[in-house]
Specification:
The protein has about 325 residues and is of the alpha/beta class. It has helices at about 5-15, 25, 75-85, 105-120, 135-140, 170-175, 200-220, 230, 240-245, 255-265; strands at about 35-40, 50-55, 90-100, 100-105, 125-135, 145-150, 155, 240, 255, 275-280, 315-320. It has one domain (about 30-320): 2-enoyl-CoA Hydratase, Chain A, domain 1. The protein is built from ten helices and eleven strands. The strands form two sheets. Strands 1, 2, 3, 5, 6, 7, 8, 9 and 10 form a nine-stranded mixed beta sheet that branches. The protein has a two-stranded antiparallel ribbon with strand order 4-11. Strand 5 (about 125-135), helix 5 and strand 6 form a beta-alpha-beta unit. Helix 3 runs parallel beside helix 4 (about 105-120).
Length: about 325
Amino acid sequence: MRPTPLTLFALLAVLPGCIVIPIGDLLRGPVLEESVLVDGGGFFQREKIAVIDIDGLITGTEKSGLILPQENAVSETKAQLNRAANDPEVKAVVLRVSSPGGEVTACDVIHHEIGRFKQRTGLPVVSFIGDQGASGGYYVAVAGDTIFANPTAIVGSIGVLLHHLDLSDLLGKIGVAVEPVKSAEQKDLNSPFRKMLPAERAVLQKLVDDMYNRFVDAVAAGRPGMTREDVLAVADGRVLSGVEAKKARLVDSVGYLTDALEEAKQRGHIESPTIVRYSRAPRSGANIYTESVTPGPQARELHVSLPLGLGDGPKLYYLWRPGW
């Protein structure tokens, strides 16, 4: 078992002399471990269904934790896909999605990695949307071979969001002026310190439209029987219940996680599946309804404050966040 940072600190407190310990490796956090949720038996070999969770805001940015850095959604999903691909006992994957979406690039990379996993392994991937698979969450789910949705799930919100914050009137009232020195007129595009010009809005609208069209194309490619025109008819940002999403052909079946697991069992030609999931901190008594305990993705929230766009800069989102 790998020593934790707390164990390391305790040892340093009681041991004399100088000790050289590879602390960089320790700070990477616990290794990805397998938890058995349902034991299907099999003495010499098991046939596994791997449940991979995509929870909360999807981002490619790592955040700092109290002791260890929190893994980002892209990296964690890739690690879990690799773990499943390298296990010859894994015969199918259930992608359990519970996400309102997130950053455009992060969602697109995960979608791409799921496609590469399917190509590399030939294994079936069944997407299951729990409480929500909206915007980027749906973008990820559509990479699966088939999609199940809880009847009360929130599905859809196909679209792109880019916020613009205009502080110019407020700054004028308090006598503050910002005068950037720039190399070209549009170098401070989307600046919150002045009004947006029509030409600048056209540039940003083109960018949003490009990302929107990529989303529509991904859905059309991933939904058998739906043309691009069919997708466009429901790709106006609306959200649907799981039941309505089935009528709109955005999902294949309305059901529960047990139904998605049964579908994975049939597609993987498995008689008695052992259901597993991967986590950094396995929880005792885990079952198929156990929430992800991987630190990071599901713990993330998007906090909107006044300096939106002043820190890392504005970002494009495949995101459903009502009232935001």
